[in-house]
Amino acid sequence: MSHTFPELPYTYDALEPYIDAKTMEVHYSKHHRTYYDKFIAAIKDSELESTNLSDIFAQISQHSPAVRNNGGGYYNHILYWNCMAPNGGGTPSGALAQAINDTFGSFAEFQDQFAQAAINTFGSGFAWLVVKDGQLLISSTTNQDNPLMDVAEVQGEPILALDVWEHAYYISYQNRRPDYIDAWWNVVNWDAVSEFYAVALAQGR
User: Fold this and answer.
1) Residue of 125, 137, 180, 204 with fewest CB within 10 Å of its CB?
2) Which phi and psi (to 5°) does residue 61 adopt?
3) Where does Mn(2+) bind (predicted)?
4) In a domain? residue 46
């Protein structure tokens, strides 16, 4: 296998007014692309060129900071993009909705706990909804770490990612991270998240 840079699944302006086109363009074509390019450079002529990301992350503590930081940035953004859609928002349905209600008591309580994890991430990082041993967990990581990494405090299969680096929201929201998070709920692609949840369960995560 080889690591490729995927196309954005929608146009830069598709998530407006919640996430502006300029932010999307810079975030995808500059930030994400740079993580990818640096990751490819960091693994060049090594066995990691043909190793899947999950296996790399499972032993990330044994790899260089360049692989950890840029491999994380490469993967994290792919999940982040795919957890959003132009006609997103609303609430999940089916098995995911039931699991959220069973775990957190209600969708509103889940939203609150997830938002707090994102708001309270010091500096740059991500908030995550994770499947671990068939259960849902909320976690956060700093910088470009993720729950697939053996260095993560909470490890598991991430199914929902929220980028809280300032470059993800500063043009429209400046330092108002809570406002960005409130807006982000309007573009969450619950159909995709539900699919990620189903796959995680099927794989015995």
Assistant:
1) 204
2) -65, -15
3) 27, 77, 163, 167
4) yes
170-185 pLDDT, tens digit per residue, is 999 999 999 999 999 9
Q: What is the model's pLDDT at position 1?
A: 53
Peptide bond before 17: cis, by omega within 30 degrees of 0?
yes
Q: Which domain CATH number covers 50?
A: 3.55.40.20
pLDDT, tens digit (0-9, with 9 covering 90-100), for 39-50: 999 999 999 999
AA identity, residue 187? V
Any domain includes 11: no
Q: Which domain holds residue 46?
A: 20-204
The dihedral through the CA atoms of 114, 133, 149, 88 has a sign that is negative
Helix (H) or strand (E) holding 127: strand 125-132
Q: What tokens appear for 160 in the block?
A: 């929902």
What is the sign, positive or negative, of the torsion defined by CA atoms of 171, 172, 177, 182?
negative
Please state the residue numbers annotated as binding site: 27, 77, 163, 167
Query: Would residue 7 count as lying in a domain?
Result: no
Mean pLDDT of 91-115: 98
Instruction: Enumerate the known binding-site residues for Mn(2+).
Output: 27, 77, 163, 167
* CA proximity to 125, closest of 99, 87, 153, 156: 153
Mean pLDDT (the chain) is: 97
Q: What are the distances in angstroms from CA 192 to CA 57, 93, 110?
A: 22, 11, 18
